Amino acid sequence: MEVRKTEKQEDTEMLSVEHVSKVFELGHQREIRAVEDLFFNMCHGECVMVVGESGCGKSTLVRMISGIEMPTSGKILFNGKNVPDLRGEELRQYRRQVQMVFQDSAHVISPRMTIGEFLRELWICFEHKSRREADEVVRYSIQRVGLDQSYLKRRPHQLSGGELQRICVARAIALHPQLLICDEATSALDVSVQKQILDLIREHVEESGCSVLFICHDLALAESFGDRIAVMYRGRIVEWLNGNHLKREALHPYTRLLLDSVFSIHDEPDKPIPFLPEEGGRSGLDQNKNGRDGTLESMGCAFCARCEKADEECRKKRPELNMVSPGHFVACLKIETQR
Amino acid sequence: MTMKPILEIQDLTIDYPERAGVVRNANFAVQSGEIMAVVGESGSGKSTLLSAILGLIPAGGAIRGGKILYNGSDLVKLNREEVRLIRGRKIAMVFQNSGEYLNPRRKIGSQYLEMMKYHLPGTKREHRGRALEMLERLHLANPDRIMQSYPFELSGGMKQRVALAIALSLEPKLLLADEPTSALDVTVQAQVVREMLQVRKQFGMTILIVTHNIGVASRMADHIVVMKNGEQREYGTRQQVIEHPQNEYTRYLLSAVPELEA
Prior knowledge:
The complex is a heterodimer of chains A (339) and B (262).
Chain A: E1 13-27, E2 30-43, E3 47-51, H1 58-65, E4 73-78, E5 81-82, H2 88-97, E6 98-101, H3 115-127, H4 131-144, H5 161-174, E7 179-183, H6 191-208, E8 211-216, H7 219-225, E9 228-233, E10 236-242, H8 246-249, H9 253-261, H10 312-316, E11 322-325, E12 328-330, H11 333-338
Parallel strand pairs in A: 3-8, 3-9, 6-7, 7-8
Antiparallel strand pairs in A: 1-2, 1-4, 4-5, 9-10, 10-12, 11-12
Helix pairs in contact in A: 3-4, 5-6
Chain B: E1 5-16, E2 19-31, E3 35-40, H1 46-53, E4 62-70, E5 73-74, H2 80-86, E6 91-94, H3 108-119, H4 124-137, H5 143-147, H6 156-168, E7 174-178, H7 186-203, E8 206-211, H8 214-220, E9 223-228, E10 231-237, H9 238-243, H10 248-256
Parallel strand pairs in B: 3-8, 3-9, 6-7, 7-8
Antiparallel strand pairs in B: 1-2, 1-4, 4-5, 9-10
Helix pairs in contact in B: 3-4, 4-6, 6-7
């Protein structure tokens, strides 16, 4: 996607995530390491897609960026300021700059609010507008997302999933945030509705030049929408790609596995589906989604249990992200040696 | 592949109290041994259609007209006892969130064996052997361990495979699958699709699958039905529907699917 960047801000770093980890304590000395020692950066006007399967830590990552969760360690710098340290008015302004759209909008909007109240709230809160003034702007913002004004009087249960998602996008972009975070914003929607929501976001990005951090599990969607793509596996980014020609460029075995698992409508129907062994937790049972004790396996490559190319080295040494070409980074020991 | 349809839907119309015509005049035939996919968006009536086959329409809903012919006999007209004999043994079903159909307080094994005891002759030991064999056939590592697990101990993909195993152990002629892979990650989805295709090969089973994932439908199905707002918009072979869609809506639907660049 062509993102028009405002001239001043071009290529300046907006967000940088450094050495960030998040550990959830489960009690009984069990813990989940949702995100481990992660590096991540974004420039103004960029659209970054984070791809991964459930439990890989992608939601935890963006929840930390948006300030919903606190990282266990590490820094999240937004325009040079560490997000977890923000307090008071600074934090309030940060929340204005970073807006989020969630997967399940039905749970985001209070069932007792009308859509009008929901959209009006932020103008009163951030811009100190009177109700009447706020109503004016709200009428404009609901128009922008292609819904008519009769919606303002309705309540969430009267709207379909796609309409609710439009409302949430309308609210998120109303104050022109610098960063729009979408956490699986279209995953629960039908493909045709998904397309409409994406067009809406794309339109806004082109108009305002805001950055988008988009989480999804659909590689095809990531490719069509993003400037850069980060593939996450078990709390780490295993590959950074430029946002096109995924099929040709992707190198990491996990990314390849994801690509092979996508069913394209243009595939031959008898194309073989590769067999994938069950992810081996203890005893072959997945006790919890990324269930590990955190100590035993933390040495080697997280993917080695399911990787065909894995050998002794992979089990012992943790691969770091290495550059293979400009903008393309891979964390795999085998690929480094190949080149 | 014989050319006698195992299942025929004729002019089927289903009403809900708040919405008439959830399914309107559905018409298609499933040949023995083939895989038929019904695709459509939410609210298109595809799941209702599938539930109707086993008489599982949610309370309040009713079949207003039409026939559902299974091997020539109309399922709509059967009495409870006759339906009971068909459910599970002749026609089995797998749901989207199979995890929720398993009792969370009982181990997989006890639920599995209960079902077998109800439907099949033989001793518990024989049943158990058969269950283990079926789990193994579906590439579940360590079937013994699975029989002793509670549903919460298994991942989504494993639960889906367990549900598939339970449905298959009676060797039904027809398997109905309602969005069996929609709640799963792509890699797991690929595995479940793989198992289902293999099952078809091994048992010569007929599968009627409902999905909104057109990629999955196009990989699995021999014939595809496209539904929209309760109406059947298109019905044809995979080739016809995917490569040369006739209907406006089908074309729109296909164009909305994000595709990877070659």
